[in-house]
UniProtKB/TrEMBL annotation, chain A:
<feature type="transmembrane region" description="Helical">
    <location>
        <begin position="245"/>
        <end position="267"/>
    </location>
</feature>
<comment type="similarity">
    <text>Belongs to the binding-protein-dependent transport system permease family. CysTW subfamily.</text>
</comment>
<feature type="transmembrane region" description="Helical">
    <location>
        <begin position="288"/>
        <end position="312"/>
    </location>
</feature>
<feature type="transmembrane region" description="Helical">
    <location>
        <begin position="191"/>
        <end position="210"/>
    </location>
</feature>
<dbReference type="InterPro" id="IPR035906">
    <property type="entry name" value="MetI-like_sf"/>
</dbReference>
<dbReference type="Pfam" id="PF00528">
    <property type="entry name" value="BPD_transp_1"/>
</dbReference>
<keyword id="KW-1133">Transmembrane helix</keyword>
<feature type="transmembrane region" description="Helical">
    <location>
        <begin position="132"/>
        <end position="155"/>
    </location>
</feature>
<protein>
    <submittedName>
        <fullName>ABC transporter permease</fullName>
    </submittedName>
</protein>
From TrEMBL, chain B:
<feature type="transmembrane region" description="Helical">
    <location>
        <begin position="105"/>
        <end position="128"/>
    </location>
</feature>
<keyword id="KW-1003">Cell membrane</keyword>
<keyword id="KW-0472">Membrane</keyword>
<protein>
    <submittedName>
        <fullName>ABC transporter permease</fullName>
    </submittedName>
</protein>
<dbReference type="InterPro" id="IPR051789">
    <property type="entry name" value="Bact_Polyamine_Transport"/>
</dbReference>
<keyword id="KW-1133">Transmembrane helix</keyword>
<dbReference type="GO" id="GO:0005886">
    <property type="term" value="C:plasma membrane"/>
</dbReference>
<comment type="similarity">
    <text>Belongs to the binding-protein-dependent transport system permease family. CysTW subfamily.</text>
</comment>
<keyword id="KW-0813">Transport</keyword>
Amino acid sequence: MSVSTVSQYSAAPAILPAASGMRGVLSDAFWRRPKLLLLLMLLPPVLWLGIIYIGSLFALLLQSFFSIDEFSGLINREFTLKTYGDLFQAANLDIILRTVTMAATVTLASAVIAFPIAYYAARYARGRWKALFYLAVMLPLWSSYLVKIYAWKLILAKEGILTWLFAKLNLLWLLDAWLSLPVVGGNSLSVSFTGTFIVFVYVWLPFMILPMQAALERVPGNLIEASADLGASPGQTFRNVLLPLALPGIVAGSIFTFSLTLGDYIIPQVIGTSRLFIGQAVYTQQGTAGNIPLAAAFAVVPIVIMGLYLWMAKRMGAFDAL
Amino acid sequence: MRSDHGQIAPLGLKIAASFGLLFLHAPILLIFVYAFTTEEKSYQWPPPGLTAQWFAVTWNRPDVWEALSLSVRVAAISTAVALVLGTLCAAAVSRSKFFGRETISLLVILPIALPGIITGIALRSAFALTDIPFSFWTIVLGHATFCVVVVYNNAVARFRRTSGSMIEASMDLGADGVQTFRYVVLPNIATALLAGGMLAFALSFDEVIVTTFTAGQQQTLPIWMLEELIRPRQRPVTNVVAMVVVLVTLLPILFAYYLTRDGDQIAGSGK
């Protein structure tokens, strides 16, 4: 009661007395200065991500300007562009070109396989079916990455289910003919680029379906009908109406498939030939070779490629579909 | 009312979509068959016989248990860190507009937008520059960093639906900040946090690319599996572990979906 009698003139009657105790004082202070609370809330996450993540990225960039002493194997901490120059050796350019080609074909193939699923889910599935479709894409997306690769090791092995299936269908000659082709073939599917390609498509496919479906949901159904009413064949409708409207979604999905393929080193290591991809080059350079500067320079390559890719994607309006 | 209600899909589209879904699911189902095969030297199909003995063999393997225990401890602590950081960040970003807000969203998403190998090699070179030795905590450092985004995405979606006037009402009625958080904010965001936390746990539990750069000689379960993938030594044990991992990750995903299914931007749509 003492508070109200003392502050009879200063406090308006509708306002509660000032809160007491540490908690109350703090609450009042934050309520009066929301900026202060905001700052305190942002501080821990920004510090964590800023120091650990952005700091590490800078460390990476810094390392890529160091070089390795070829005789002692020690890292020479002086600014040089020599390590970046090493990237342009024929062997290293090969690695970069191989990875980019793989990323591009994987992206195209995922778009082709993803489209029917995304289109069906967006336009025809309703209610229960829609939820089911959603889960059918989510579960493979979230199942263990290594287990998915392991499953394909089982499937693609010479004694595995795929060879068995080809034998049952009397198509072994076809498999053998494919495997005897120069670049895409090999001793068995599990040690060929074809195998690497299939597994990449499999593992990244859900990342293509989800944004594609989001974009297709936004295409009004009556536009498709109008196109058909005006005499377009389904093929024409697809090319001139559906595809242009769905393109931002496809580009958004391709950001994932492209970027993930560029940076992956486990799939080509487990299923594929001994020829390296960028990710493997990074891994072996920092591990067995102990050449962290070259590994860092290699890691900058996907960052630059993705930077260009994102810039182009932004111009095509892909970010509205994310 | 949308004009396309009750339409029937063309047959070609149905077939293509079914094949796509089959392609997505058949490989995972195959794992379940292989866990029971009697063949131990190759990946022979069809399995020559079926047995359940490998479950007992796997159960008695100390290396599997050690890897599992390390993975669970790392995932638990990373999830806890990510929950705190992700929620704070989501609360700040959703309750007000301020300078640099877009930058902060980008900062949170970046660790998962850039390929894992970049996060990995970046952390590896930072540890090398600062002479930090590999330990349990270097793994946690990496995992927590990319888990923040999962919690953040779920929490931000929920905060957007929660009206700010509820907080004002609570304060008007005399609750202090702690009480308001405990009785008004937390009940509103609890399921979103639970979903985000479970997804973060699943993400950390399964992570291998960043871990290979931050673990040194330690073995998490994914690293144990990776060694088996590159140099297969005990195929039957690997088959069983693979099957168990599929089952263990399935449950949190389904539960997280169930928790956030109505209205929210559904959990996990951006891994």
